[in-house]
Input
Amino acid sequence: MNDRLRPDTRLLHVGEAPAVYLKTVGPPIQKGSTVILPDAASLYDDTRPTYGRAGLATHRALTDALAELEHAATVRLFPSGLAAMTGTLLAVLKAGDEVLVTDAVYKPTRRFCDRVLRRYGVTTRYYPPDSSAETIVSLCGAATRLIVLESPGSLTFDMQDVPGVATLARSRGVLTLMDNTWAAGLYFKPLDHGVDLSVQALTKYVGGHSDVFMGSAAAREPALVDALDKAILDFGWAVSAEDAYMMLRGVRTLPTRMARHGESGLRIASWLSGRDEVAAVLHPALPGSPGHDIWRRDFSGAAGLFAFALRHESSVASFLDALDIFGLGFSWGGFESLALNCDPQFATRSHPPRFAGPLIRLSVGLEDPADLIADLDRALLASR
Ligand SMILES: *Cc1c(COP(=O)(O)O)cnc(C)c1O
Output
């Protein structure tokens, strides 16, 4: 530094970012709004990053890893999973459009469609989640721009014929968007099956520790990548480098954690299906469960999230309150096991599902499954 500079100036300019970093296993957590450009000509050069909002080295490392995960050309980041869904909708829809949405869609996505999209002149129609591909695509009218898929569906785990819908929709010039959070990008690759946009709440399995929010949207078509980029630029969405670093850390152990979640989940689902207190188990990877054939055809593994119906209405609270290892809470995909009852969330559905009894959702964590089964055993006995 120039020795003649005064103390206040020296204080501001000592310890500046190094131009070159030592190589570590992870990327640097590069924080920055301002990007320092090498010369005057670079200031207005649109082909290079000139501002940090769109992400720096840490974000780039994460989006490269997620593009690999989703078999995508490009992945863009959003501040939460919900923001990734709503942001992608805003990126591709305009006033006058119609969107067809599965009735089993994540409930806050529905709230956005009903409250925000409607206000901006986009209409939403909900189709039953078990509709065939032909039925869904036959609903398309002249204004239909997009079909939203979620498979398995939230809470009820309905499996959709995603490749069928994607192929038929494409032939009609209608876009498809899938919420791919359950498969975590690992066990199902929507873009390989013809889906145009794959969205994930990274908050769940990719984060894996219930402590950071983020969402991603993956695409291949240059026009859709451009639409996502413009939306991100126009709305000003940004995620922090610290959070991007945490997500990248999650990506590294995702396959290992998912294998344990999946194995424990299936073991517990199978154990539950033999219990008197249980009327039905909704787990796509469990033989005999609804949608199992589609899961076996299209998916390469299972998450640890599934549901089961108790036989008696009165047993919900006593069951949940007797759980000790399973925490009661929303969200899922963390290392810790969680449970909640689902029925209060069905009131907003256009086609409310009906089961033999109240529905309980379990997010099976990484604990020893024998301890989880013992916990469920005690709670089921307490619920009788
Ligand atoms: C949790 C969830 C989201 C939203 O993710 P957030 O990061 O909590 O906003 C979206 N889709 C599905 C299926 C989810 O379970």
Q: What stands out?
A: Residues 80-82, 85, 106, 154, 179, 181, 201, 203-204, 213, 215, 331 surround pyridoxal-5'-phosphate (CB under 6 Å). The radius of gyration is 23 Å.
